[in-house]
C-alpha cells in the first residue's frame, strides 16, 4: 500500500515530513530513497520538527548518524552515502541503534544492504517539473498501519 504526492518547494517538503511524523512510532525504520538533492534531509527535518525537535537538522554525510533526543523517543538520522562496504556499519555498532524505543531514518539505505533491518516505510523522491514526486510505501505491518494513518492526513 502506498501514498503518492507531488511537492513543490522546501517548505512543502518540510510540511510533508511533519505530516509523516504523525504516523511514526518508536521502533520504526524508514528508508529514504532518491538521488542527491532530492530533499531527503529536508523531509527528515520536517519529520523531526513534527516530533518536537527545535534545533538544526543537518545531513550526517560525514558522521554517518546524528542522534536526536525527543520527548519519549530517540531518533537516529543516518546517511550512508559515503559507506563503501556494508561491513563498515558493523564497526560502528549500527545494530545497537535499532531498538523498540528508537526511530531510525536512513538515507542511502542500499549502501547497508544485508546489515540493515527491513524498512517499515520506504519514502522515494524523484524529480518532476519544478518539484518532487514522493511515494510513501508501507512494507511491514507497522508500515501499513502508518500508511493508514497518513491517508487521513495527506491528500494526493
TrEMBL record:
Q: What Pfam families has UniProt attached to this entry?
A: TsaE
Alphabetical keyword list: ATP-binding, Cytoplasm, Magnesium, Metal-binding, Nucleotide-binding, tRNA processing
Q: Does the keyword Protease apply?
A: no
Q: Which GO terms describe its biological process?
A: tRNA threonylcarbamoyladenosine modification
Question: Can you name one GO molecular function term for this protein?
Answer: metal ion binding
Classification via InterPro entries: P-loop_NTPase, T6A_TsaE
Q: Which GO terms describe its cellular component?
A: cytoplasm
Write out the annotated subcellular location. Cytoplasm
Q: What is its main location?
A: cytoplasm
At the top level, the lineage of the source is Bacteria
The family database entries (NCBIfam families) matched by this protein are listed as: T6A_YjeE (TIGR00150)
Family per similarity comment: Belongs to the TsaE family.
Q: What is the protein's name according to its record?
A: tRNA threonylcarbamoyladenosine biosynthesis protein TsaE
Its organism's taxonomic lineage begins at: Bacteria, Pseudomonadati, Pseudomonadota, Gammaproteobacteria, Oceanospirillales
Amino acid at each position: 500500500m502506498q501514498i503518492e504526492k507531488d511537492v513543490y518547494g522546501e517548505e512543502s517538503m518540510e510540511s510533508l515530513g511533519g505530516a509523516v511524523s504523525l504516523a511514526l512510532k518508536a521502533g520504526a525504520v524508514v528508508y529514504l530513497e532518491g538521488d542527491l538533492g532530492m530533499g531527503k534531509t529536508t523531509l527528515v527535518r520536517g519529520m523531526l520538527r513534527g516530533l518536537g525537535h527545535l534545533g538544526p537538522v543537518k545531513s550526517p554525510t560525514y558522521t554517518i548518524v546524528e542522534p536526536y533526543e525527543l520527548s519519549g523517543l530517540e531518533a537516529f538520522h543516518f546517511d550512508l552515502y559515503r559507506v563503501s562496504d556494508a561491513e563498515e556499519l558493523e564497526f560502528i555498532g549500527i545494530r545497537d541503534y535499532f531498538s523498540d524505543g528508537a526511530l531510525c531514518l536512513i538515507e542511502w539505505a542500499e549502501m547497508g544492504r544485508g546489515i540493515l533491518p527491513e524498512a517499515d516505510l520506504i519514502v522515494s523522491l524523484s524529480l518532476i517539473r519544478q518539484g518532487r514526486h514522493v511515494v510513501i510505501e508501507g512494507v511491514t505491518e507497522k508500515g501499513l498501519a502508518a500508511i493508514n494513518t497518513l491517508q487521513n492526513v495527506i491528500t494526493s
